[in-house]
Amino acid sequence: MAGDTTLSENYAFAGVFHVFDQHLDSAVRKVQFAHDERHLLACCSLDGTLSVCRLAPGPPAVLRRLRGHGAGVSDFAWSLSNDVLVSASLDGTLRLWDPADGRCIRRVPDPDGAALLCCAFQPLNNNLTAV
């Protein structure tokens, strides 16, 4: 234990904020900080939405919810410059989002309508996404 504190004092969670209240009915599948940014994070949920959150300055807050998928969002990734989010959904679509204003930039359906389970940007070229 650090100093003269007890176990319960070390794990008191004083000052911990919960920013995922908007996803009460469905599981949050993933939480990820933006690249080289300790105050900006996003999460995706099986309710079909993503949330972009700001942790500081001030109290943590949900900046926006990204809505449009017809089923649960199984995965997402930040672009290297944090100006685009890509999301994969059980509805068989991949979407590109502008996290600054929450709009869907592009919707790409799977040709067979299969559920999409994971996605990632190519690290050196944000024009290439693997699903």
TrEMBL record:
Family matches, as SUPFAM superfamilies:
WD40 repeat-like (SSF50978)
Q: Where is the signal peptide?
A: none
Q: Name one GO molecular function term.
A: promoter-specific chromatin binding
Query: What highest taxon heads this organism's lineage?
Result: Eukaryota
Q: What are the UniProt keywords, alphabetically?
A: Repeat, WD repeat
* Coiled-coil ranges (or none): none
A GO cellular component annotation in the UniProt record: nucleus
Q: In its keyword annotation, does this UniProt entry include Repeat?
A: yes
Q: Where are the WD repeats?
A: 66-107
Q: Which PANTHER family match?
A: WD REPEAT PROTEIN 26-RELATED, WD REPEAT-CONTAINING PROTEIN 13
Quote the protein name from its UniProt record.
WDR13 protein
